[in-house]
Write a structure and sequence with these properties.
It is a single chain. With about 375 residues, the protein is of the alpha/beta class. The chain has two domains: about 220 residues, Isopropylmalate Dehydrogenase, CATH 3.40.718; about 140 residues, Isopropylmalate Dehydrogenase, CATH 3.40.718. Helices cover about 40% and strands about 15% of the residues. The chain contains twelve helices and twelve strands. It has a ten-stranded mixed beta sheet, sandwiched between helices. Strands 6-7 form a two-stranded antiparallel sheet. A hairpin with a 4-residue loop joins strand 11 and strand 12. Helix 6 packs across helix 7, helix 8 runs parallel beside helix 9 and helix 11 packs across helix 12. The C terminus is likely disordered.
Length: about 375
């Protein structure tokens, strides 16, 4: 059997705390890569405000090239008040992140939330809820909806956006959600606003049609305002949440609060050939360079990449287990620290994860790169 080809990973640290948390994530990737004999090459690029400052645009041609040539894109963060006054096409979030999603044809954003029981003391939810555990995933449509709908307009007196969905877009994301649910607890909650929005009426109709091909999956519909409330009242009722671009953006960030910090929530955006991995939190320019940023979500993005791009679920699980281990031993950045637990720096978190990975027993099973393995 021919050895597996080398994966190309585009590394885009971005703005604010992006470079700091990216540095720790790459250390973990290196440690996991050595253990599982992964072949990959890192290609570094600029995006967002940092790219604007250097090249005059948030997604330069060279960055586009390495992303299109890559098997995966690892993204830190983009944006900050410094660039808020730029024209829309120059703003990091619009001309950078949204343009990158369009360039790569990313159509689904997956944000899993698994509550670390060791962090239940910092969750805003009651212990009676948290002690029972929370395990859900938000599947957000990423290519359509109000962020990309046309026409758009903005002048001194009025701004308008268009929320638009096609049957094809809804069917594609719904099919993905049902397939994911089949490997979980077989429950899908589709979130919309079908009582007032035409786009949501189509959404619900197509989701119902798609569900007929998955009779083993339990489907229910929920209005977005109720879903936002239910996430706080009883998050355990959810397995897979399927929703639109705008509603998914809001609900997935809300779900992060259940775990106590946006710094705990990773995500993967799926494309036909290339996937993009990014933490859910923002660039947090107010703490950039202080060594206090939480790198956990960025490290968990590496875990997702090991599973989705490299096809190495065992390596992904090791990263998860290493984080759980160091958190249980009191390793927490300031956003997670409470009581008598002293805060650790961003680098100390990354170093501790590497120590854990390097201390694991040798991998005894054949890796996917071993000609004797398959």
């Amino acid at each position: 059997m021919e050895a597996e080809r080398k994966r190309i990973i585009a590394v885009l640290p971005g703005d604010g705390i992006g470079p700091e948390i990216m540095q720790e994530a790459l250390k973990i990737l290196e440690a996991a890569g050595k253990r599982h004999r992964l072949r990959y090459e890192l290609k570094h690029g600029h995006i967002g405000g940092a790219a604007c400052d250097r090249f005059g645009e948030p997604l330069p041609a060279e960055t586009r090239r390495i992303c299109l040539e890559g098997d995966a894109v690892l993204l830190g963060s983009v944006g900050g008040e410094k660039w808020d006054g730029l024209p829309q096409e120059k703003r990091p979030e619009i001309g950078g992140l949204l343009a990158l999603r369009k360039l790569l044809g990313l159509y689904a954003n997956i944000r899993p939330l698994t509550l670390f029981k060791e962090l239940k003391d910092i969750s805003p939810l009651s212990s009676s809820i948290i002690n029972q555990g929370v395990d859900l995933v938000v599947v957000r449509e990423l290519a359509g909806g109000i962020y990309f709908g046309r026409p758009k307009s903005l002048d001194e007196d009025e701004g308008s956006d268009t929320m638009r969905y096609s049957r094809r877009e809804v069917r594609r994301i719904a099919s993905l959600a049902f397939r994911m649910a089949a490997g979980r607890r077989k429950k899908v909650t589709s979130v919309d606003k079908a009582n007032v929005l035409n786009s949501s009426m189509l959404w619900r109709r197509v989701v119902d049609e798609t569900a007929q091909g998955y009779p083993e999956i339990e489907l229910r519909h929920m209005y977005v305002d109720n879903a936002a409330m239910q996430l706080i009242l009883n998050p355990r009722q959810f397995d897979v949440i399927l929703t639109t671009n705008l509603f998914g953006d809001i609900l997935s960030d809300e779900s992060a609060a259940i775990g106590g910090s946006l710094g705990m929530l990773p995500s993967v955006s799926l494309g036909e050939t290339t996937h993009l991995y990014e933490p859910a939190g923002g660039s947090a320019p107010d703490i950039a360079g202080k060594g206090v940023a939480n790198p956990v979500a960025m490290i968990l993005c590496v875990a997702l990449m090991l599973e989705y791009t490299f096809g190495e679920p065992a390596a992904s699980k090791e990263v998860h287990d290493s984080l759980r281990s160091i958190i249980s031993r009191g390793y927490r950045t300031p956003d997670l620290a409470s009581g008598d637990k002293a805060a650790k720096t961003t680098q100390e978190i990354g170093d501790a994860v590497c120590v854990y990975l390097n201390g694991l027993p040798p991998v005894r099973t054949h890796s996917s790169l071993d000609p004797k393995g398959a």
